[in-house]
Write a structure and sequence with these properties.
The complex is a heterodimer of chains A (283) and B (516).
Chain A: H1 2-17, H2 25-33, H3 52-55, H4 58-66, H5 68-73, H6 77-85, H7 98-111, H8 134-142, H9 178-182, H10 184-193, H11 197-203, H12 210-227, H13 235-260, H14 267-282
Helix pairs in contact in A: 2-7, 4-7, 8-12, 10-12
Chain B: E1 3-12, H1 21-29, E2 43-47, H2 59-62, E3 66-69, E4 72-75, H3 80-85, H4 96-99, E5 103-105, H5 108-112, E6 124-126, H6 148-151, H7 163-170, E7 178-182, H8 191-195, E8 201-203, E9 210-212, H9 222-226, E10 232-235, E11 240-243, H10 248-252, H11 258-261, E12 268-276, H12 280-284, H13 291-298, E13 299-300, H14 305-313, H15 318-325, H16 328-335, E14 340-341, E15 352-355, H17 359-362, E16 364-367, H18 371-376, E17 388-391, H19 397-402, H20 408-415, H21 420-441, H22 447-456, H23 461-473, H24 476-479, H25 487-494
Parallel strand pairs in B: 1-15
Antiparallel strand pairs in B: 1-12, 2-7, 3-4, 5-6, 8-9, 10-11, 12-13, 14-15, 16-17
The chains are: A mainly alpha (283), B alpha+beta (516).
C-alpha cells in the first residue's frame, strides 16, 4: 500500500514538472515557434532560425528565448537591432524550461540549412481578388457577425479607429497600423496561428476558418491604408467630451424641472411678516 | 344604469361649535404614531381662513384635482404623462412647513427637574428632529380668526368679493366666522386613485370607502399632489401615504366613525347613498355651473322599484338598500336639498355634503344709541360704551340673507362653485324652518307669515318639522344608519367556513396528564 502511494506521488510530481512526457524538440518548435519562425525557409514574423547557434552562443539564446524583452531592455545591441528590424513585434515569452529550450535549439541544429532573408509566401496575396472581403472582415472584427466556431470577436481586446465611436478594447495592442508594421505574410500567419498566449487560449477551441482569416487581414489592411489619410480620433477624449456634453444636457433638463417646482412653503410669507413686525417693534 | 352603494356623510355647519373633539378622537385612534404626527385625517378650520395645509384650496399653489379640457377632464398636477415626467421629482408637493412642524412639550421636566430658583417649564420640542423648536404654526393656528390679517385675508375663497366686502369682513367689530370640519370626502371620482402610479389606492366595492393599500404603496406621493382637499398624507417614517379610512373597522362592526361618534354638536350624519356609476364620467366632465345639479341627479332614489331591481342585480344586499331608504344623508341631500358638496369645482364628486351655516349670515349689526343705558351703569362698573347691536331679529327676513354679513359669494365659492342662488336656496330653507318652529314654540309669528315663508321655499309644515327633528332631536340611530357590511360573505368567498366548525371552543393550552 505504502509503495503504491509513493509511486503515485512520484508520478504526480513528474507529471507536473512535465519531465515524464517531455516533448521532443520538434514538437516544441512546431507548437511554440513555427507560427513566426522557419528554419531555412525564410522570414516570417521573426527571422529565419537556420544556423542560429552559429550567430549567438547558447547562453544568450536561452536568455533571449526565456524573456526577449528583458534582454532588449537591458541594452543588448544585437537584440535591439533585431527588434527594430522586425517591426518591434514583441516575442512572447514561451514559458518553457531551459532543458526544453535546449532541445528546441538541438532540433534547429539538426535541420541545418542556411538562413534566407526572403519572405516566405505560403499564402495568397491579399491583393488577389476574392482572397478577402473587407466588409465581412469589418463585421467579424466588430462582432456584428459571429465567427463560425464561436471565437471571441476581435473588438473585445483590440481597437481600430473606425469600429465604433468609442473604440474597441484596450486589453491588447491597437491594430491600426498592424498591416504596415508586420507585413502581409506575418499578419495572416498571426491571425491564423495566434502565437500570443492569451490569444491562443481564446481561440484554442474556436479556431478561425481560412476565409475568416483572409477577411480579417483584408480589413486590417484597409484600415491601415485609410488611416494614412484620416485624422486620428482619440476615443479617450471622445469619452470626456461626450461626458461633459451629457452633463450639460442633464443640467438643462434638471433646470427645466426645478423651475416648475414649488419653492419653500406658503407660510414663509406669513412668518416673514410676523418677524419683520417683531423686529421693527423691538428696535 | 350601474347601481352602487356609497357610505356618504352630511356635516351640519350650523351646529358645529369648533371644539375639535372630532380631530382629537381621530388623532388618538389613528395618527398618534411616528411619522403621522403632523397628519390630521379630520381637521376643523375656521372660515374665512387659510386652513390646513395653508391655502389648500388654492390649486395654483398645489395643482390638485381635475381640470376640464377638450377631451373631458384631466388631473391638474398628476396623471399618466405628467406623472411619469415628474415621478422622481414631484414638483407640487406640500412641504412640512405648509402643514406645520409637529411638536410636543417636555412635560416630564415639570416634575423631574431638580430644585432650582426658578419654576421648571415644559419646553416645546419638535416631533421630527426631537430638538427644541420655536413653534410657528399648528393645524388650527388661525382658529377663531386669531392672526386674522395673515390668515383670513389669504383665504382663496375671497375670490370674486369686492374690496368693500372684504374689508367689511375684517373690521374687528364686524367679525364673523364659522367652522369647517373636514375629512376625506370618499369621492366618486377620486383624483388620488387616478394619480397613483402603483395602483395602491382603491375604492371599496361594497361601500365606496377609498383606501390606500400600505403594502402596494411605493411612496410616489402623486396622491398627495392630486387630492385637491389635501387629505392624503405622506408618512415620512414608514414611507407610505395614508389617509382617512372612515374608521372602516368600526363601520364593519356597526359603529359610527370615531369623529362622528364623538361629535359634541352632533353635526355629523352618515348613511348609504345609491348612485349610478355609469354617469360618473359624464357628470365629472360637465360644465362647471351644472356640476352640483348633475352630481345630485346622479344619486338615485332608493324607493324607486327599478333602482332597487338594478341594485339587487348588482349584488347590493337588501340590508344596504334598506339602510339607503332610512339614510339621513339621503334626506338632507336629495329629499330636502339642503346639503351641498365642498368645492364641487374640483370635479372629484365628493360624497361628504355640508349644510351651509346660517348663523353668521342671518345676524346683522345695527347702530343704536346706548347712552341712556350707559348712564345707568355704576361709575366703577366695567362696561364698553358700544353703539352697535348684534341683531338676529327676523323682521326683514330675506333682506338679511341678501345683505349677509358673510357675503353669499363667499359661501358659494365654498359649496356651489360660485353659484349664489344654490346657497341662497338652502339658507332660505334653514331660515324657513326656524320661522316655522318659532311659530310653534314661541307663537309670536303669525300663521300667514310663517306659511308664506314655508311656501316660498317649497316646504310644508310636516317637512319643516322633519327637518327640525333630524337637525335638533336626532338620536344616535337616526344620525348614523350603518348598513351591515356582510364580512361573513367576503370570508366565505375565500375559504370554507365549515373547516373550522367543531375545532374551536373550549380547549386546553396544555394537554392534561391523563390525555384527551
Amino acid at each position: 500500500m505504502k509503495i503504491i502511494i509513493i509511486n503515485f506521488f512520484v508520478f504526480s510530481v513528474l507529471l507536473l514538472t512535465g519531465q515524464l512526457f517531455s516533448q521532443s524538440g520538434e514538437d516544441l518548435f512546431k507548437s511554440k515557434c513555427s507560427a513566426c519562425h522557419t528554419v531555412g525557409k525564410g522570414k516570417l514574423v521573426g527571422p529565419d532560425l537556420a544556423g542560429v547557434k552559429s550567430r549567438k552562443d547558447e547562453q544568450w539564446l536561452i536568455k533571449f528565448i526565456t524573456s526577449s524583452q528583458t534582454v532588449i531592455n537591458s541594452g543588448d545591441e544585437y537584440a535591439k537591432k533585431k527588434f527594430e528590424e522586425f517591426n518591434k513585434v514583441i516575442m512572447p515569452d514561451p514559458g518553457i524550461s531551459e532543458t526544453e529550450i535546449k532541445s528546441i535549439l538541438a532540433y534547429i541544429e539538426t535541420q541545418g540549412g542556411t538562413p534566407t532573408t526572403q519572405t516566405v509566401s505560403t499564402f495568397r496575396p491579399l491583393s488577389e481578388s476574392n482572397s478577402g472581403n473587407i466588409e465581412s472582415g469589418r463585421k467579424l472584427f466588430s462582432g456584428e457577425q459571429r465567427f463560425t466556431h464561436g471565437g471571441t470577436s476581435c473588438i473585445s481586446c483590440h481597437n481600430v479607429p473606425d469600429v465604433t465611436y468609442f473604440g474597441g478594447g484596450r486589453l491588447a495592442v491597437d491594430l491600426t497600423n498592424v498591416y504596415s508594421r508586420l507585413g502581409e505574410a506575418a499578419l495572416v500567419n498571426i491571425i491564423q496561428t495566434q502565437p500570443f498566449p492569451v490569444m491562443k487560449q481564446a481561440f484554442v477551441n474556436n479556431p478561425l476558418t481560412e476565409s475568416e482569416v483572409y477577411d480579417l487581414a483584408s480589413y486590417l489592411k484597409d484600415v491601415d491604408e485609410k488611416q494614412k489619410f484620416a485624422l486620428h480620433a482619440n476615443p479617450t477624449i471622445n469619452f470626456l467630451y461626450s461626458g461633459i456634453a451629457g452633463l450639460a444636457v442633464l443640467l438643462v433638463v434638471f433646470t427645466g424641472f426645478w423651475h416648475k417646482r414649488r419653492k419653500g412653503s406658503v407660510n414663509n410669507k406669513i412668518y416673514k411678516r410676523q418677524e419683520d413686525f417683531l423686529n421693527k417693534n423691538s428696535n | 344604469m350601474d347601481v352602487r352603494s356609497q357610505i356618504s356623510m352630511v356635516f351640519h355647519l350650523d351646529k358645529c361649535i369648533g371644539c375639535h373633539t372630532c380631530s382629537i378622537a381621530c388623532k388618538n385612534i389613528w395618527t398618534d404614531r411616528k411619522g403621522a404626527e403632523y397628519m390630521w385625517w379630520n381637521n376643523v378650520e375656521t372660515k374665512p381662513g387659510t386652513g390646513y395645509p395653508t391655502k389648500w384650496e388654492d390649486q395654483s399653489v398645489y395643482n390638485g384635482g381635475w381640470k376640464k379640457n377638450d377631451d373631458g377632464i384631466a388631473l391638474r398636477g398628476a396623471g399618466k404623462m405628467r406623472g411619469l415626467v415628474n415621478i422622481f421629482h414631484n414638483p407640487n408637493l406640500p412641504v412640512i412647513d405648509d402643514y406645520y412642524e409637529p411638536f410636543t412639550y417636555k412635560y416630564l421636566d415639570l416634575i423631574e427637574a431638580p430644585a432650582m430658583d426658578d419654576q421648571p417649564t415644559a419646553r416645546p420640542v419638535s416631533l421630527i428632529t426631537g430638538k427644541p423648536i420655536n413653534i410657528k404654526m399648528g393645524p388650527n393656528w388661525d382658529d377663531d380668526l386669531s392672526g386674522t390679517p395673515d390668515y383670513a385675508r389669504n383665504d382663496p375663497n375671497m375670490a370674486g368679493l369686492s374690496e368693500a366686502e372684504r374689508e367689511a369682513m375684517f373690521q374687528l367689530e364686524k367679525m364673523a366666522f364659522f367652522y369647517l370640519p373636514r375629512i376625506c370626502n370618499h369621492c366618486l371620482n377620486p383624483a388620488c386613485i387616478a394619480s397613483c402610479p402603483s395602483g395602491a389606492i382603491y375604492k371599496r366595492g361594497e361601500d365606496g370607502i377609498v383606501l390606500i393599500n400600505q403594502e402596494v404603496c411605493r411612496a410616489w406621493r402623486m396622491c398627495v399632489t392630486a387630492c385637491p382637499y389635501k387629505k392624503s398624507y405622506y408618512n415620512w417614517s414608514t414611507g407610505k401615504s395614508e389617509k382617512c379610512i372612515l374608521c372602516y373597522p368600526r363601520i364593519e362592526a356597526g359603529y359610527a366613525p370615531a369623529c362622528m361618534h364623538s361629535c359634541v354638536g352632533r353635526i355629523r350624519y352618515l348613511g348609504v347613498m345609491l348612485y349610478d356609476a355609469d354617469r360618473v364620467q359624464t357628470v365629472a366632465s360637465c360644465d362647471e355651473k351644472d356640476l352640483v345639479d348633475q352630481q345630485l341627479d346622479m344619486l338615485l332614489d332608493p324607493f324607486d322599484e327599478s333602482v332597487i331591481e338594478k341594485a339587487k342585480s348588482n349584488g347590493i344586499p337588501d340590508s344596504t338598500i334598506k339602510a339607503a331608504q332610512y339614510s339621513p344623508v339621503y334626506k338632507f341631500v336629495k329629499r330636502w336639498g339642503m346639503a351641498l358638496p365642498l368645492h364641487p369645482e374640483f370635479r372629484t364628486l365628493p360624497m361628504l355634503f355640508y349644510v351651509p351655516p346660517l348663523l353668521p349670515v342671518m345676524a346683522k349689526l345695527q347702530t343704536v344709541n346706548n347712552d341712556e343705558q350707559s348712564k345707568k351703569m355704576d361709575k366703577r362698573a366695567k362696561y364698553w360704551p358700544d353703539n352697535w347691536l348684534y341683531d338676529t331679529s327676523t323682521e326683514d327676513l330675506w333682506g338679511t340673507i341678501d345683505q349677509a354679513r358673510i357675503p353669499l359669494k363667499y359661501l358659494a365659492n365654498l359649496f356651489s362653485a360660485g353659484d349664489e342662488e344654490k346657497v341662497k336656496n338652502v339658507l332660505k330653507k334653514l331660515m324657513a324652518v326656524r320661522v316655522h318652529r318659532r311659530r310653534v314654540t314661541v307663537g309670536d309669528i303669525t300663521n300667514e307669515r310663517a306659511d308664506s315663508v314655508l311656501n316660498e321655499t317649497g316646504l310644508d309644515a310636516q317637512t319643516a318639522d322633519d327637518i327640525y327633528n333630524l337637525t335638533s332631536l336626532a338620536k344616535f340611530d337616526d344620525r348614523f344608519v350603518i348598513p351591515a357590511t356582510h364580512r361573513e360573505q367576503a370570508i366565505e368567498m375565500l375559504e370554507f367556513t365549515g373547516d373550522n366548525k367543531g375545532s374551536t371552543g373550549f380547549g386546553f393550552i396544555e394537554s392534561p396528564a391523563r390525555g384527551l
